[in-house]
Design brief:
single chain; about 220 residues; alpha+beta; Pnp Oxidase, Chain A; binds flavin mononucleotide
Length: about 220
């Protein structure tokens, strides 16, 4: 295993004005590391109707460095989909243990455009597309056989994606987390780790500059 604490210089000192260049580099490092099977795995925390936190992993399928927007795709009728519709804010974490790095981010959540959701859905393999049709994500189901019967039914209806493309289910698409807060954590020797948090305010149409502070580990 690569020892990052020995070779990684950690966060720059003084800290950069924005977290973006470091984040771009870290995401690139994670993607380039063959030993990390799911570099895009991101925990997403939402708040349910009782006010309780709920967290689960998703895959972050888009990161726009210019706007600090992180995109995920899911079922809008799932627990997380309903929670994000009711309270469109999320807190997310990436953790790349092998690289000794953690990224925390939070901010407001918007729905991805229909056009973009269509394009992403079209890029998925037909098995995943049919599963998206078959699964009423987060609802209970009597048994595995019921789920497989539903998959067979949607395959009979839509085909296997060979003769004609499988359309996107109406309740399936993307969300974008517009980061208003990003914290970078870098493992350092003796657990005297590096931490820094960048915060910005963003309203519709206007995004203010980042302000940064170094945090104690
Ligand atoms: C590594 C990993 C990646 C996942 N990626 C996604 C994803 O991109 N979208 C998704 O809806 N669920 C994904 N899941 C499943 C979710 O963790 C979760 O079980 C599901 O979305 C239902 O969550 P909810 O009931 O809170 O809505 C993933 C699970 C794992 C372990």
């Amino acid at each position: 295993m690569r020892s990052v604490t020995a070779s990684d210089p950690g966060l720059a000192d003084p800290l950069p004005e924005t977290p973006i260049p470091t984040l771009v580099r870290w995401i690139g490092d994670a993607r380039a590391c063959d030993a990390i099977p799911n570099p895009e795995a991101m925990a997403v925390a939402t708040v349910d109707e009782a006010g309780d936190p709920q967290v689960r992993l998703v895959l972050c399928r888009g990161f726009d460095p210019d706007t600090a927007r992180f995109e995920l795709f899911t079922n809008y009728e799932s627990d997380k989909g309903r929670q994000l519709a009711a309270r469109p804010r999320a807190s997310c974490v990436f953790h790349w243990d092998l690289l000794g790095r953690q990224v925390r981010l939070s901010g407001r959540v918007e729905r991805t455009s229909e056009v973009r959701s269509d394009a992403y859905f079209a890029s998925r393999d037909p098995h995943s597309q049919l599963s998206a049709w078959a699964s009423q994500q987060s609802r209970t189901v009597a048994d595995r056989a019921t789920l497989e019967a539903r998959l067979a039914a949607v395959r009979a209806e839509h085909g296997a994606g060979v003769d004609s493309p499988i359309p996107r289910p109406p309740g399936w698409g993307g969300f974008v987390v517009v980061a208003e807060r990003i914290e970078l954590w870098s493992a350092r020797a003796g657990r005297l780790h590096d931490r820094a948090r960048w915060v910005r305010t963003s309203d519709e149409g206007e995004t203010l500059a980042w302000s940064v502070a170094r945090l104690q580990p």
